[in-house]
Amino acid sequence: EQSSEALKSKRLAELHSRLQFRFKAGEAQVKVPGSIYSECNILGEEAVRQVLLDFIAEHKIPDPDEAAITQLIEDNQSHFHFLTIRTFDTVELNHRGAQIHIRKSEDLMEAEALIFHGRNGARLQEVFNVLQAAGIVKGIRKKSIEKVLRSRHCGFFEIAKGCPAIDDRPGDIEKYFHEDEHKEFAKMMEALTIDTRSVKDINIADRNQLLMTIGDIVPGSDGYSIDGAVLRKKVLVEASAGLRMGKNVYASDDGKQVFSKQSGHIVWKADEGLIDVEPLYIVEGNVDFSEGNIIGFVGKVMIKGDVKPKFSVIAEGDIEIHGKIEDAIVRSTTGNIRVAGGIVNNSGGHVEAKE
């Protein structure tokens, strides 16, 4: 057994299917079935009004006459003939009764048209003449117009469309380092042995090391609006225009290669297009399974958490640990080690600095 809401939806759908629509002599017209008055009593006037509005919107009629819609619902005499819900401003195509209504978008990138063919229709050149008088000279859809004229179709169709400008695009970047340094936690936890404490794949650069190459600029093209105005593309002069270079990197003379000025940690922020090399490597939390061992970094390492048991931190520069060292290996080959939280060494830990 159907619910009352389901039955109501079914009756509204049936009402929708019985509505009739037509374009005639510069007007949009609707005819409703004689039962609409009783449908209002059963389904409610607002529900029936919404069905009418949806039906009109399907035919792309903006701003229908509210008084006409009310008349369609409430006036019994309006239930047996077509009633005008919108009158369009039209331009004569010829002296044979053909007319056209044109609406242009505010940005002049597209135009739609509605042709009232009359008894003898219109010719393609007659449509072109009206378009030119309306200031529409580019992007005219000739095939669409011919199809409408041939079929005598009466409905809105796209009669002209502009072309947006396509800006020049920076060259493609080829990187000579791993874009994502972070290890997958699940892989590191496959087995709880020291072998799973993998060395984190830190991007380390030597001085004057090639970090990336940049391809040629990908050229765009100018566009146009339907009134013939040229829409200029954004012109790029350098292939690296979309790239931000930090203070510790430099570009080749032709701008197509990026090198490191010094040894350190390669920093690549893809969302900002930023490339740099920092002499400092920062661990925001602990050195644990989520971070992995840190071995071989050439600069300074700062760890804001702890170094957990059985993990290793080995670097050339200073090592600064804000937490504690818990039975771990920490070694600086040329610098100092500073530990704020103390050292816990029960079995396998080792801490070693040059000084």
Secondary structure blueprint with pairings:
Elements: H1 4-18, E1 20-24, E2 27-31, H2 36-43, H3 45-58, H4 66-74, E3 83-87, E4 91-92, E5 99-104, E6 110-116, H5 124-133, H6 142-151, E7 157-161, E8 173-175, H7 185-188, E9 204-205, E10 210-214, E11 223-224, E12 230-231, E13 244-245, E14 249-251, E15 257-260, E16 264-269, E17 274-278, E18 280-283, E19 294-297, E20 300-303, E21 312-315, E22 319-321, E23 325-326, E24 329-332, E25 337-339, E26 343-344, E27 350-352
Parallel strand pairs: 13-17, 18-20, 19-21, 20-22, 21-24, 22-25, 23-26, 24-27
Antiparallel strand pairs: 1-2, 2-3, 4-5, 5-6, 6-7, 8-10, 9-16, 10-15, 11-12, 14-15, 16-17
Helix pairs in contact: 1-3, 2-3
Structure, explained:
The protein is of the alpha/beta class and 355 residues long. The protein contains seven helices and 27 strands. A hairpin with a 5-residue loop joins strand 14 (249-251) and strand 15 (257-260). It is elongated and about 100 Å long.
